[in-house]
């Protein structure tokens, strides 16, 4: 299958214009998918190519970025280019969006039919980030560049305190990086980076399966591009729904030990048993190629 698409078409780019990665309502997202696929069929320019339906692995090429992935594991993928927003001094950091290419993945959550599990690969030109006035982007690049990967285990912690040290994530989300499990160095021939499992939250809430994300942050070996990939995973270890009789006051009062228990479950498990499994995630990241 070959679909033609203009990499700088703002009509398609609306999919990527959001300040943080989140789970989407299934019905609304399905409408977006249908509308965008129609637009993809009507536009011309760069190509998004996939192998036939008989193949397990598909290849996607868009805006100089190519990768291979398994649609049966990652779900559908929607590419877009976001030109970013003009920097606004008075705007919150998460409202200032730097230019980037985006690939949004979505697959149905078998436990919650009304929810899609999402993921996203963002590719930033570091030159664009250096030219953009929002300081949080440059700070994340510098943090990853200077991170001592020999001490990654010191980040293997849990706390609802937003002041605790967090691992790099781009863009900086409007939420607290509550925990980081299984942090590890992960280098390939074309990119050097780190991986970890994270849970983000803005308030005390029960953690449901499908709300913990796998994260990879890397810089291409030529130093030109920043890769930010995250995808929600199914662990099989957490509840799939909030109990109807949940006592909110009691939950909040015991939130710290609750978080510790949830973190211990995730950090003590073998990520190879999660969905997507780490071998599929590593194969995907290793396949990413960016043309200068």
Q: What is the 3D form?
A: globular
- Helix fraction? 10-25%
Number of strands: 13
Structural class: alpha+beta
Pattern of helices and strands: EHEHEEEHEEEHHEEEEHHHE
The Cα radius of gyration reads 19 Å
Counting structural domains, the number is 1
Number of helices in the DSSP assignment: 8
Let me know the average pLDDT: 86
Strand content: 25-35%
Assembly classification: single chain
Question: Could you give a short account of the major beta sheet?
Answer: 8 strands, antiparallel
Low-confidence stretches: 1-45
Plain-language structure description:
The protein has about 290 residues and is α+β, with helices and mostly antiparallel strands. The chain has one domain. It has helices at about 10-15, 25-40, 70-75, 125-130, 135-145, 250-255, 255-265, 280-285, and strands at about 1-5, 25, 45-50, 60, 65-70, 75-80, 100-110, 110-125, 175-185, 190-200, 210-220, 225-235, 290. Strands 2, 6, 7, 8, 9, 10, 11 and 12 form an eight-stranded antiparallel β-sheet that branches. Strands 4-5-13 form a three-stranded antiparallel β-sheet. The protein has a two-stranded antiparallel ribbon with strand order 1-3. The chain is globular, with a radius of gyration of 19 Å. It starts with a strand and ends with a strand.
